[in-house]
Structures
1.
Amino acid sequence: MQIFKKLMIISLLSSFHCAIYAEPASTQHRVVAPKCLLKKINATYTTLASSKNLHFIETNDAGIDALIEAKQNQTTPCGGFMDVTHAWENDGKKMNANHNAKSFLAAYETFPKTSLTTSYSIKYPTEVATLLKQSNPPYMWTRLQGLSSYKDRYSRSDNGVKAAQEIKAEVEAMAKNHGRDDVSTYFVTTGSYKQPSVVVKIGTSNQPGVVIGAHIDTLSSTFENKPGADDDGSGTVTVLEVARTLLSSGMHFNKPIYLIWYAAEEVGLVGSQYVVDDFKQKNIPVSAVMQFDMTAYAHKNDLTMWLYDDYTNKELTAYVETLINTYVKTPVKHDKCGYACSDHASWTQKGYNASMPFEASFRTDNPDIHTSRDTMEKLSLAHMTNFAKLGLAFAVELAEPSN
């Protein structure tokens, strides 16, 4: 992966016909990152506080780029990073002025212990089996073609905004076409980033709900196209297939299902942090979270589904394995990906039960993500379809069919 550079002058670009996105002047970011990741970056940053495993730093756009590259190039599970600028501006300043940076970091060093708010067991095999029969792999492949045809879905580009708008409009059309009056959709803005996250609620209950999500965004296409077919077009389409199947089924549920497409994941899980904050502010209860970050790359055509055990809930992860064994019937293995490697970490950090099924082990995932080579010909429709089946089983079993 290459570090994409920031373009500060746009007047010289007026004669070009290709779409190049002008960036704002470099801004300062507050970031929580593991020490093992910071050792691998060549960028300027200031340490505000440190703990056993993490640093709380201030850096600029170039530092964010360096962190992205280090995350991509790691050979042992270290993890990612969280751009916590928004949280710092809102929460950090409320803390003791003499120790606020240290106190702020402490909330990221040890995630809250989560407790189960629902019983994890197999209860609705008939209903799940009915929906699995309605799987539509060709739809998924067609939608992935559309998403990966963008030059990028970068969170600061117009394309990133269009991709989010397209997803929201498509789900709204699904609901209208199937006469669903129990579906609501809305955007959650993402601070200084153009791209919003898309939230869809199925059902009108205010009971603890089920969250299934993926991130929409890619990196910038300033120097090469970023189709993002696998990362995370595959996860985005997996969640769309869950939406299509649920809405076309006529099935209703006792508990709400939230389908979420996050903005700005690549730049430090920014979009998901805004979404989680929005849920917190609205007092929306959540019983379980599933994150689909890449679902279609099958290393050497191996359809094993991997479950990541770090920064996730142990009991929920075990239940996801049970769902795979019961309904998908493919091999299951476990691995670790390190600190804050995807949007599930935003939920875990705030005390929610989260899980992350993934397409491959840490060392055998798609080597072409974040490049122009992240295209569809390397992907497995069968693998992606299996993740959609898992998402459906997760939704039905935990949201409890009412008819």
2.
Amino acid sequence: MSANPFAFYRGGAALMAADLASWPVTGLRVQLGGDAHLLNFGGYATPERNLTFDINDFDETLPGPWEWDVARLCASAPLAASARSFGKRVGEEAAYQAVASYRTHMRELAAYSPLQIWYSRVDVRGMLARELTPPQYATHVKPTQEHEDVARNTIHKYRETLLPHVRILLDRYQPMDFFEHPVGVGSVGLLTVVAHFEAREGESLYLQIKQAQASVLERYLHPSLFANHGQRAIAGQRLMQAATDLFVGWTSEGERDFYVRQLRDAKSGLDVERIDAPQLVDFAGRCGAVLARAHARTGNPQAIAAYLGAGDVYENAMAQFASVYAKQVERDYEAFCRGL
């Protein structure tokens, strides 16, 4: 989090939740991603082996006001622009485009039937080679025996959360080894283990077992309906994503909850170090479109679209908010660094 204000922002979902809790909202609720900044959108392979683009982080997912996800996405744009030294205008344009895309797609979705919304996709052709790159992972390290035992126990219980046909598929693979796995800024301190499975030599499956805890939104909204926070995360993922990994599931060990998913299944994301200014603006717009579709699946797209209107009043207001809030994040970041 000390790298720059954007990294600080990515690890500060709880701080923004506290700020958003005092906002007036429409009262229209959706399934929130809960941490919808630019780096929590990306490409991955669907079970049908198509490449898709969607929101891909659900550690904080919870039902709540749709405005909170839009604000989280919008405010991340000027911070990402600043991290690349693009200047204020690019950050404002990216924030504007994210909200404009959200509004226009929500208005389109308002005319769809529930089935049409559920089956809809956001076109990613033309963006993948330019804006998305595979993630870079630090070297895995062998876990302690205690953590390996936890992983083995969780795998056994996780199997029971899978659909019957996926259990049969999983049973064709045997666990071979376990490694601890570095996690994102918002999950530092939580246990994450990679389980390496093989069917035959060279035929590998990698599952990530990641510890889950209560959403930072619960303090300001309501407790989760799920006793297991891994289940909460996976339920939110299935509600919001257009297509979800076959192997997602959940489990627990002692007082710790976990969710499980495939690791590196054609995964790609925004490369902040290499993207140029026009690509950042375009990427922000794609994220806004994806977020609108995700919200339309669980909310009332007609009511949200009616509130957003046909003009650009909302995106102008949110672009201004993003600029002001980014400055607040920068001040918070400076205070954080002074306290280290």
